[in-house]
Structure formats: structure tokens, C-alpha cells
Amino acid sequence: MPSGRAVTQFDRDVAQVVELFPDAAPDWITRALQADPLAGVGGLVDVMISNRAYERRPAQAKPLIRRAQAKAAAGAKDSNLDYTRDWAKLGNPDVRYQTEAFRLLSCQFPNVCKPSLRLLMSWFCNRYAPTLKILQDYFAGREPSSISRGTVQ
Q: What whole-number distance in Å separates Cα of residue 125 and Cα of residue 86?
């Protein structure tokens, strides 16, 4: 809404419907309210709920997706990075990542004691993927994969 003009009841009605249906196109709501002014907001909302046939806003990319696409375009990260082998190139994860990775692994492998799990994670700089791969290989009776224990580069 332009800030220079007074807000009318019609503008408030359009805003009400947009609040209830954020995916609906505001210009379609305006046309629908103008087409049947006697039905008002309640009538339009009933029609939109019962028919589910209303014009939607064009799909917009999510902000995280746009940021990831921008990083990929700038060549910030290699898209073919293998997180089970190239974990040392990633650096140390933040504390939240480490905590959630530990919780997830402790739920997936309840028979591994927590001190042993913490030690195993520390061998891989508290990264989830290489630790998971080693544990899966161990419990499947396979030789550990070619993940090398080491330090961050």
C-alpha cells in the first residue's frame, strides 16, 4: 500500500485475506473482492477454503537456497565434496553442530558408551559423516573404510 493515501476498509479487507492466505496473489484477491462486494471477506474466504482454486503468488526461492546458489556460483565450495573422506578440509564445526551430531550418533548407536563415542568423534574433528561411516562399518562387520584419522588441514 502506498503510504501517501488513507487506508480504506477495502484495503483492510484485502490485508485480512492475505493474512489468512499468504500464498494467494494480492491482485487476485482484489479482483475477487471487487467482483462480489456483497460477499465480503467471509464469502471470499469460504470460497477459497471450499474450492482451493485461487491464484497463487509465483514461487520464490528460499533465502537459504539463494545463498547456497550464490556460494556455488562464486566457487566458494566444491559441490563434489565427499563429507566422509574430505572432512579435514572443512575445518572445525561450531558447538551446536558438534552437540547435535553427538546426540544423533548416540541415538543411532545406543550400545556405544558416550565416552567412547566422544573419543571416536574427536578423531574426526567432531564431524558426523566420517564417525557414522566408521560405526556403520564396524557394526556391519566390514573393514573400516578408507577414512583416515587425523587433524584438520
A: 12
